[in-house]
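=== RUN LOG ===
request id: a7f3
mode: sequence -> structure
chains: 1
length: 497
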Amino acid sequence: MSNKIGSNKISKALQWSTISEITSRLIAPITNIVLARLLTPDAFGLVATVTMVVTFAEVFTDAGFQKYIVQHEFEDDVDLDISTNVAFWTNLFFSLFIYTVIAVFANPISTLVGSEGEGKSIIVACMAIPIVAFSSIQMARFRRSFDFRSLFFARLVTSVTPILVTIPLAIALKNHWALIIGTLVSELVNAIVLSAMSQWKPTFTYSLEKLREMLSFSLWSMFEQISIWLTGNLDIFIVGKMLNDYYLGLYKTSMTVVNGYMRIITAATTPVLFSALSRCQSNDTEFRMTFFKFQRLVSVLIMPMGIGLFLYRDLVTYILLGSQWTEASGFIGLWALTSSITIIFGHYNSEAYRSKGKPKLSLLAQIIHLVFLIAVLLVVAPLGFKILYIGRSLARIQLIMTGLVIMWVIFRISTWSIIKNVYPAVVSALLMGVLSYGLQMISFNTIWRIITIFICATFYIVILMCFRSIRTEILALPIIKKVVAFVSGKKKSQTLS
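=== RESULT ===
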């Protein structure tokens, strides 16, 4: 893949992936606002515990095969098709096996996750496991070929499904079954759409030799996903044991609000970055250039989001959650700030490890962080909610430092080169933060603070465009080129007329 062709493919893939995430994130809040008024919090709480079981089981059913299909360099299309078939049938078999185990032990599992007597809910919800296993390999083929346009249409249809299915069911049933059935239908629609659009179709071919070859990568990737799942869920268990339901609610909701907005950027860029790095894994120069380009682009978007949410944490909390959530504002602000730093300096490192066929490195980094995180939580959780969220947020610095060390030792990408790569966004965002703080001191009026957000956003863009390297890259983006061409054409036509 030449640099020119590769750059065009990556730009188009990133464009479609971003549109997909923005569209789904715009539709989801509308659905949630309606559902929140139709269903009780108990229904959402029950579905949350059931979803935890589903996501944990899906880690095992995928076994890292999706990432293998995207990352591996195959000899030819025949080799790719054989590996895809092996991944597909292995995924499907294990998903059916795990679903059977869950169905048999549904009642004990429901008690374990704190939803005693809801075994039937778990049985029905976990039907999503084989459905997801069916579609995940199809998705891998699209990502490998940078066909994020097709994934956009599949995501769009899936995003609309809750409006057409879940909301009517919530009106009729008024319980958690509306959410469970709606999710199942969404996954089923996604699988059908992906299968219909995919040029690859599964055939009854299998190779045990190929399976052994794939497992050397896939098993380590699966262990890494388990560690990530533990990092994202174990703190909920610890906090739930040491604090009451009220503070657990503040804790979970604060993280969910921030992560939801940050995922607009990370979910749009991560799969594209992994596909891009995988295709240039044997060319170290192109590998570094691609990694730095993505990191620089993300820093331009994420850094002002983090600083902005931190400085306007009270206003954001009031608008999104209401006055009864005031105590969560401190956590929302600090979690947003540390999230932006973590995403820029640590989030994409694991994609570099995996794209080079080294998922063990990501697993090592996650295990070290998990041990550190458990120790921090056990110390700070008994000291109160404020100490808890400060400790939990700052604990992410350890994950960043571990990642930076690994990037230098294994890939010879120094911390200083990473800092130089993103300093335009960091400097611009910090200057914006200083301006924001000064403007907010003038008045605490809500209307004035909203006005200052637009002032600061404009100031940030102006400062950022003063850096030639960033200005050149932004103006080179396909969507910016189209806008410039459209405006230029319109002006030219007006001049001629």
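=== NOTES ===
The mean pLDDT is 80.
The first helix runs from residue 3 to 38.
=== END ===
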